[in-house]
Specification:
alpha/beta, 23 helices, about 40% helix
Length: about 525
């Protein structure tokens, strides 16, 4: 009887030797005359355990990890094909606490299926949403999006349904769906995991979006640093076309939708939707002034729906199970779940999908296991390189767009980067300004010049050159950038700078009255 062994093909697993482990397992099975079927699945998102090898048993899938090439023979000797005990034995995969305590909604198939198997995808509710959408009027599909409460997962958190409704209501001979897969924020990888580990989910979401808005052409704009994601998407698109899920007549419905992958040129600012459109059109990625909104005049001047990978990947389940199912997760105006990504100085880095309302403290300790260094955690940057640094006093806030905005923070794309007590927040604030100066598209003065001057001012504060006046100047400069920049690149760079200054003044050499008294 054939035994199925799963070895991830995710980039994180490949980086630590998953291909070599897979080859050795195949070789060892052949040498011992054992019938082993090797499946290259996506990652479960437990990156500290990669390569995570799983074995299908009558009781369920049993996990072992992290497995190296030198461990393989010993695993066979121990009887791992039957789920036997071994030093790397982790038990039933679904019972691992890190996974068991999550709400895997969007990521329900992640790590379970062969990412390029349409049969696997459809066996686990894949394309159920599209089939339901094909039987609905476009306005009813859009209403489902509105009712679900889904907001853009790329960072801006704009209600997805409103964008869809605008594109549907705008008349044009040609409309487009554009997926923003230019995942450039520090500590983020949920988009990459989706494209590599469950690409049909994104393809299905974009197809539904096309049917709902009247768009017949879609583009996935992927950062050039994601070669495995690009390859997986192209292979999945070809298979979807061959099976009738894409093309001129989707499943015989009369609806047409074509999809292509476009590679980005490495610019961080192309994560901003209008700069992305410029790049897609073959131009330099520079931010456009708004209005007009892309939903009205976007790609090539036509109505264009632009959503992030996770936004579009959430769509199939909303259509398959109904808006109420999705809306029942979360708190306040933050509905559904968010795949949060733990990175930086964290013991158990990886992906955690939870409903909105979970706290940062829970994520850091119940999932992350504290710092990798074993030292106290000092600051946590949430929302990418333009997100605020949150001190411990704010770790018990519910993860919620409005709650974070109220304290000058941002949930963003769900990236969480941890720093222990050896971190110098003045250096990190300087890095934020320098990052903006390097990555600015240069179109607006507050971002282009403000970031350059910001680096200089922070250097003067750190060197104690008229520090009190320089602090006043830095705050004034940040105010100009927030209110005068054309896009979030300049408008949000002050978030990490001001949060570092406000919560960790001692790192800038500033002695506050309460600390002086102490």
């Amino acid at each position: 009887m054939s035994i199925t062994v799963y070895v991830p093909r995710d980039s994180a697993a490949l980086a630590v030797g998953a291909d070599r482990v897979a080859r050795r397992i195949a070789e060892e099975a052949a040498r011992r005359g054992l019938d082993v079927q090797l499946v290259r699945n996506g990652s479960r998102g437990l990156f500290w355990l990669e390569p995570l090898v799983e074995v299908g048993t009558p009781a369920g899938r049993v996990a072992y990890g992290p497995v190296t090439v030198t461990d393989v023979a010993g695993l066979f000797d121990a009887g791992f094909l039957a789920g036997a005990a071994h030093a790397l034995h982790l038990g039933l995969t679904d019972e691992i606490p890190y996974l068991k305590k999550q709400e895997r909604v969007t990521f329900a198939r992640m790590g379970i299926t062969d990412p390029l198997s349409l049969a696997d995808y459809q066996a686990l509710e894949g394309y159920a949403g599209l089939r339901r959408a094909l039987a609905m009027a476009p306005a009813d599909i859009v209403q489902q999006m509105l009712d679900s409460g889904l907001r853009g997962r790329g960072g801006a958190a704009f209600p997805a349904g409103i964008k869809w409704k605008t594109v549907l209501a705008t008349s044009a001979a040609q409309k487009y769906i554009v997926c923003n897969a230019d995942e450039g924020d520090s500590g983020t990888f949920s988009d990459r995991m989706t494209m590599e580990g469950d690409p049909f989910m994104l393809i299905e979401g974009m197809t539904i979006a096309g049917i709902a808005t009247g768009a017949t052409q879609g583009y996935v704009y992927v950062r050039s640093e994601y070669p495995h994601a690009i390859a997986a998407l192209n292979a999945a698109i070809a298979r979807a076309e061959a099976a009738g899920f894409l093309g001129e007549d989707i499943l015989g419905s009369g609806h047409a939708f074509r999809l292509e992958v476009r590679k980005g040129a490495g610019s961080y600012v192309c994560g901003e939707e209008t700069a992305l459109l410029e790049s897609l059109e073959g131009k330099r990625g520079i931010v456009r002034a708004k209005p007009p909104l892309p939903a009205i005049e976007g790609l090539f001047g036509q109505p264009t729906l632009i959503n992030n990978v996770i936004t579009l990947a959430s769509v199939p389940l909303i259509l398959a199970r109904g808006a109420e199912f999705y809306r029942d997760f979360g708190v306040g105006r933050s509905r559904g779940t968010l795949p949060m990504q733990l990175a930086g100085n964290i013991k158990h880095g990886g992906l955690v999908e939870k409903a909105f309302g979970v706290t940062l403290r829970e994520l850091l300790y119940d999932y992350g296991g504290g710092s990798a260094s074993g030292r106290p955690i000092k600051a946590v940057q949430v929302g990418g390189p333009l997100g605020a640094y949150l001190p411990e006093s704010q770790w018990d806030l519910p993860l919620d767009y409005e709650a974070y905005a109220a304290v000058g923070g941002t949930v963003g794309h769900g990236g969480i980067v941890v720093h222990d007590d050896t971190a110098d927040l003045s250096k990190l604030a300087r890095y934020a300004m320098e990052f903006c100066a390097i990555e600015s598209c240069g179109k607006c003065t507050p971002c282009r010049i403000g970031s350059t001057r910001g680096v200089e001012v922070i250097d003067k504060i750190r060197a104690d050159q008229n520090r009190p006046q320089q602090v006043i100047l830095l705050r004034d400069l940040c105010n100009t950038m927030v209110h005068g920049s054309l896009c979030a690149m300049g408008g949000m760079t002050p978030f990490p700078v001001l949060s570092a200054l406000d919560h960790f003044p001692e790192d800038f050499g500033i002695v506050t009255p309460d600390r002086e008294a102490a």
